[in-house]
Design goal:
Layout lengths: L1 E6 L7 H15 L3 E6 L24 H11 L4 H12 L2 E7 L7 H10 L29 E7 L16 H14 L4 E2 L3 E3 L7 H16 L17 E2 L4 E2 L18
Parallel strand pairs: 1-2, 1-3, 3-4, 4-5, 4-6
Antiparallel strand pairs: 7-8
């Protein structure tokens, strides 16, 4: 298995840094190939601007169109091209980050904004009366797996169905479904550690064992059964879920998960 780890935490000796290092050592010891994109160590540029697209940038800038033209022409900046090449190389992509203000850190969001360009991560495939492009289960990254490894400062009950912060499944839905499933990745259930700011050495030891188990079962873990856009569950081109395909009483984000 070839694994890309995209790591987003400013402190190398943080819990996130330890989990990233453990992932590298565990996977390599099991005979897998691993590459790491440590965004802070790379001094990753987090904002999209005209310099990303070189001679293919327009004035005024049209980020989607320009990014696609630069992708097709091979004129994206070297850092962006390098990350796209890593994604195409990988069988599995692990994202290691803390949940900050209900979302991924800005540097990781900036990685997505710059790397997931038009004609690479979206805007691909047939657009017709029966097919609305290759996305949500199809696309450039189809056949690969993704796994979020997320640390959270608060306790687990705060992120439950009735918890004040909302269910963790809902908070991660925009990332897992909207960012990762969209270009075709199969998304595995996330690995989430709560109470990260108050974790004791004993708790970390147990968490590390659980993380090792997850890493060694990535290839056999069933992905979240998100509905595929072109599977017949949605009306095209409105992309509304067809009536009656969901279990009785299900609403919200859960509509887009089978079973």
């Amino acid at each position: 298995m070839k694994t890309l780890i995209v790591h987003a935490h400013p402190e190398p000796e943080s819990l996130n840094g330890s989990l990233k290092d453990l992932a590298v050592s565990t996977l390599e010891a099991a005979g897998h190939e691993v590459r790491v994109s440590d965004l802070y160590a790379m001094d990753w540029k987090a904002v999209v601007d005209a310099t990303d697209y070189g001679p293919d940038a327009s004035n005024p800038l049209k980020a989607a169109r320009d990014s696609g033209r630069a992708f097709d022409a091979g004129t994206l900046t070297a850092d962006v091209r390098g990350e796209q090449e890593k994604l195409l190389w990988a069988d599995t992509v692990i994202f290691q980050f803390p949940l900050w203000w209900y979302a991924m850190p800005a540097i990781l969001k900036g990685w997505v904004d710059r790397v997931f360009t038009y004609r690479f991560a979206y805007g691909v495939g047939e657009h017709s009366d029966t097919k609305y492009g290759e996305r949500y289960g199809e696309g450039t990254l189809a056949g690969r797996r993704a796994l979020l490894s997320v640390t959270i400062g608060g306790p687990e009950p705060h992120y439950s169905a009735r918890g004040i912060n909302g269910p963790i499944e809902d908070l991660l839905f925009p990332i897992q479904h909207g960012v990762l499933h969209y270009p075709g990745l199969e998304v595995l259930p996330p690995f989430v550690l709560y109470g990260a700011d108050r974790m004791t050495a004993e708790e970390y030891s147990e968490a590390a064992k659980a993380w090792e188990r997850r890493l060694l079962t990535v290839e056999t873990t069933d992905p979240i059964p998100f509905r595929r856009q072109n599977s017949g569950d949605y009306v095209i081109p409105s992309l509304h879920l067809k009536e009656g395909v969901e279990p009785a009483g299900r609403t919200g984000f859960g509509l887009h998960v089978r079973g």
